[in-house]
Amino acid sequence: MTRKQKITISPAQKLEYAKLMVEENYTYKQIQTMSGACPSAVARWKRQYKLELSGHTPEGISALTLDQQRIQLIYGSLIRRFNMLKDIISNKGIYLTQFMNITKLFLTLPLLLH
Question: How many C-alpha atoms does 39 have within 13 Å on its Cβ side?
Fold first, then answer.
């Protein structure tokens, strides 16, 4: 028995397929036939798209919608800046309480983005 050849589908294509399912009422089977993807992948795209529309930012995977892609980019930038600040603080010997206050500020920033 031979395995199905792996296909690569871009995030833009996944977004279009998800939109077809959610907005145009295409079935999983229609999208599966059009894309060549497995049923679980098609279901995952639809689920992810609906979550992103409701304001959830996916973790560990690339966002499909432009708004969520921007949030991921901003959040990644904040994490990099936080780590740089943490390194500076550890080298300068700033007190732990000051560090914790700065940490709380950075942890609340993603909440402000939503």
Answer: 3
Contacts of 95 (CB under 8 A, 6+ apart): none
Alpha carbon distance 50, 56 (integer Å): 9
Domain coordinates in residue numbering, the chain: 9-64, 65-114
How many whole angstroms separate alpha carbon 62 and alpha carbon 76? Answer: 12
Residue 104: count other Cβ atoms within 10 Å of its Cβ. Answer: 9
pLDDT tens by residue, 5-39: 778 899 999 999 999 999 999 999 999 999 999 99
Judge whether 14 and 45 are in contact, CB under 8 Å.
yes
* Host H or E run for residue 92: helix 66-92
Can you read off the two tokens belonging to residue 90?
A: 């550890």
pTM of whole model > 0.70? no
Q: With beta carbons less than 8 A apart as the criterion, state whether 89 and 102 touch.
A: yes
Angle among Cα 78, 81, 108 to the nearest 5 degrees reads 40
